[in-house]
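User: Sequence recovery, please. Input:
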């Protein structure tokens, strides 16, 4: 069996799990999302991308690039949701 197939399968499972978490986070209003978790995940992913490039490992380059993208998208969604909720709260309190 080609070892890369195992790597691609693991990557698909991990990314599907993270996408599901981002969707759940978006529906819940981003409650409980830690900025430090985002910073840690984004930093680790960026460093793993560099490491993967140095090893010339396509599976890990793609996977870690996607992990970085999910971290950024998740954080942007959380910030947007918090701003929207803050705006709704301001509108409600001024009525």
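Assistant: Recovered sequence (95 residues):
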């Amino acid at each position: 069996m080609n070892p890369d197939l195992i790597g691609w399968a693991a990557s698909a499972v991990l990314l599907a799990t993270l996408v599901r978490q981002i969707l759940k986070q978006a529906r819940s209003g981003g409650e409980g999302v830690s900025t430090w978790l985002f910073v840690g995940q984004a930093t680790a992913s960026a460093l793993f991308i560099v490491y993967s490039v140095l090893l010339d490992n396509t599976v890990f380059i793609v996977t870690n690039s996607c992990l970085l993208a999910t971290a950024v998208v998740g954080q942007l969604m959380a910030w947007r949701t918090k701003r929207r909720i803050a705006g709704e709260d301001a509108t409600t309190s001024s009525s």
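Residues 58-94 form the longest helix (37 residues).
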